[in-house]
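Collaborator request, handled under Task 6.
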Amino acid sequence: MRHLRKLHRVNRPQDQRKALMRSLATALFTHGEITTTLAKAKALKPYAEKIITKAKQGDIHSRRMASKYIYDNLTGNLMCAGCKEILTQEDLNEGKCGKCEGKVISETVLRKLFNTIAKEYEGRNGGYTRIYHLPPRRGDAAKMALIQLV
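Structure tokens returned to the collaborator:
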């Protein structure tokens, strides 16, 4: 019997499903919102919320656990290693942060998750994402959805 064993399978084998969820979660944390099919959005919601809950703990073990569930891609932004803030070209001072003189490093999805996203949801006990229904896709009339961080 399958009591209490709900799992969104999205019609894929386990290895493909894990890779799909990792890439969708990485895109969600990188951009803040993504457009996908409704079934994938419903499967992504509990997956992403568990990762954010891990990130709220903030210790090294939860960082390593979260790195198993997302790809640690570069986001294209620069951040200060000292004050953990996103830097613009005006903030740079000869390769150092203009505010605290800290080292400038590239922002990755994992750093963004732990430094900015987890800090936003410190006082929130779940419900970090929302799903909006969109009109069907034009080619195959698949139900589409917009999933975004609250």
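The cover message to the collaborator said: "The chain has one domain: 14-149. The mean pLDDT is 91. Please let us know whether this matches your experimental observations."
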